[in-house]
Queue: 4 jobs
Job 1
Amino acid sequence: MTDGRAGRAGGGGDAHAAGGGRGSPDDLVRVMLRPIASSAPLAFFAFGVGTVLYTALQLQWVPLAQAEPLTVILLAFVAPLEIITGLIAFAARDGGLATIMLMFGAVWTSIAITMRLSPPGGRSAMLGIFLLTVAAMLVAMSSASARTRPLLFVLALLAATRFTLSGVYEINGSTAVEHASGWVGIPIVAIALYAGTAFLLEDTMRRTVLPVARRRTARTAIEGDLSQQVQRVTQEAGVRQQL
């Protein structure tokens, strides 16, 4: 079955030719959307795993000699999953989640490689500056989701706080600051576990089971009809001519 627009695009060749080859974009272009599964559950679970491991090292629940196995896990498990989920989120037209998760994936990779090149318990002032810069970027990025997805906003804000404390430790070596960074990881793990479970249940059961406090456009994305989802698709990246 075709609609009127498709008929004009496919069967209106004579009219188009008579008009000198000019026509409206609606007559010439059709945007196709492909449904995909949400990458949010995997993103939150992977971030939670990385946070647990990093917290265990910072709070000295494991010996400093375990820093090397930690780097392997971060590089083989946490960082790749964060990057994959970020790329899928871009394909799902969720630039906010995609940007934050790709940032997390790159941060975990940077931390792991720096730790692997340093002796156990070693510090890096350059890593500290990097983490402080990332924290500032996260605050700026999270502000975009404050009014629509407060859960993601709180997670990003806590992560920015933790990266700030970790950056300060890398620069001045204060054990108290390192432990403070580790304790901030505890609520981050709790939020990541809750959010991952909530989004997974929502995606598999096709309804909201655990509330995630969506608001405004984020709420419309779940509760709105199809016409509300695609009414501005022609202005999105990949369709419009310039970013």
Job 2
Amino acid sequence: MQWTLVIPLKPLTRAKSRLADTAADGVRPGLALAFAQDTVAAALACAAVADVAVVTDDRLAAHELGALGARIVPDTPADGLNAALAHGAGVVRRLRPRVPVAALNADLPALRPRELERVLAAAGEFPRAFLADAVGVGTTMLAAAGDGELRPAFGAGSRSRHRASGAAELGLAGVDSVRQDVDTGEDLRAALALGVGPYTAAVSAGLLIPEP
């Protein structure tokens, strides 16, 4: 099964505000872009992924992620994360009806293609399925096979909302890189321990990450 991934990315100047204790205002946009670059590069290297659509209105991000091979979809709704994901999935399905679609966070800098392949294979067993984040509160991936609607409910506490919506929760072990999104300095430390991609490694090299 070949999936299309939909990855949302807000304007870089507004991204990753919770990393203020780790990265200065002038550094955070570059860090957010690096996260997205490593995420997209790893996703495109996954054998189960046919293509990646990035929903963004950020011109720099569109240029850099497009150069990696992502399709750029303008965030026409401009109404937040879930509207962007629904819009991106709609664009994908108009081009390729019934293609399996999965929403993936843009801040998975340690993402491993083989682990993502395992998650997508498991998701393909259900009409809708999701993977909880490392802390067990949010969601890093939501998948809809066939012509099923994605029905994204990302944001704080999204794990419970996706479960309540009828999506199957994937209880896979050994897919830490797909669970480890980065919102805080502690998250970044965990991602670095897993081993991040080259873009994040370069940008984070000079950061002093606070101890827990």
Job 3
Amino acid sequence: MMTPVHVLVLGGTTEARRLAESLAGDRSVRVTTSLAGRVAAPRLPPGEVRIGGFGGPEGLAAWMREHDVDALIDATHPFAAAMSRNAAEAAALAHVPLLALRRPGWVAQDDDRWHSAGSLTEAAGLLPALGERVFLTTGRMGLAAFAGAGLDALWFLVRSVDAPEPPCPARMEVLLDRGPFDLDGERELLRRHRIDVLVTKDSGGDATAPKLTAAREAGIPVVVVRRPPVPEGVPVARTPDEAARWVARLHASG
């Protein structure tokens, strides 16, 4: 009997969980999902799960060697650039094939008032000219970019899964919530808090996209932070099904 191919999934996204669900039903595959541990109560996928960091690319490479990993799939958040770089370096060190699983980014539609930014700091710099009541949906990490004295006149509604830590904007209300979010709820949230500008990362996917529709309907400008590129030379799958087929091809050729 052929030994199951051991796939390590760097997870934390909906796509990572769906991929683990798909692979866990295949007896020819052993799947381990690694979670960073930054969320207090993560939704655990099927299969084996490990929580915590590896200690950089060398640590990840050593872990893969120790646990006989045959394939590595980087299914982290599109903005987890440091982890993606570590994955690429670790895969090269351990001579393990690597695939990036990235859902497609959002595309502006007619009547959208989008303003592109290359970083959270650049996004913060655009805000004084766009509005005064900001719906900030970039997560709890990186709030320091919006804590500068030049933004003290602005009011922020910050939505995140876990409570943010300082430094934070001077005038801020925190909304602890986890997607998916529906359109009616997002419309009501914008209305109730009198939001006049939205800030988001180009995470893509459907779970948090309704806020963009609600902003479009209300004529609210949106600052969209561009996602970092996948490390050079790393192949990309756009869906969990594509990633599962990559694993199947890898197993068949092995």
Job 4
Amino acid sequence: MSLPHAILTALVEKPSSGLELTRRFDRSIGYFWSATHQQIYRELGKLETEGLIRELPGRQPARGQKKSYEVLPAGRAELARWTAAPQDPRPPRDTMLLRLRAAAVVGTAGVEDDLRRHLDLHERQLAEYREIEERDFPPGRDGAEDRLRHLVLRAGIDLETFWTGWLRHALAEFGELPGEGTGAQNR
């Protein structure tokens, strides 16, 4: 996924200013595709230059007034093209997994504490996703848009469920390791 397509998606859902987009990213899209305020504004400029979005018409420019944007037909077509194009899955990149591999050869100092911290973070994220599910997807909300948005949320719930289970397993493994300094330090 790319930032331009995330912004086009958000703007198709609701024309917005850069600030509003940043806030919406923090509350929804940002759970699976994050972007800084600067990245969003930079991308808005590119999308406008490419003729995919435009500033909403009918507003008199005034100092300090927020520009709001809407998606043009070319932007909608680009989003549809991108949505329909096949994409291969990307291999996961997670620094914790790499750190565990490194711990096998240099020792485990500090890793177990960080596994516990990660478990706490993933448990909190899972709880937040479940609250969102309960609040935003009550029984009977089964329109196409709601079902697809719920599917995205379910991916988050399932990933967090995986991570919490895996981290509990990893911590159990740590409990069975011989003393501190496994790996190369013990050889």
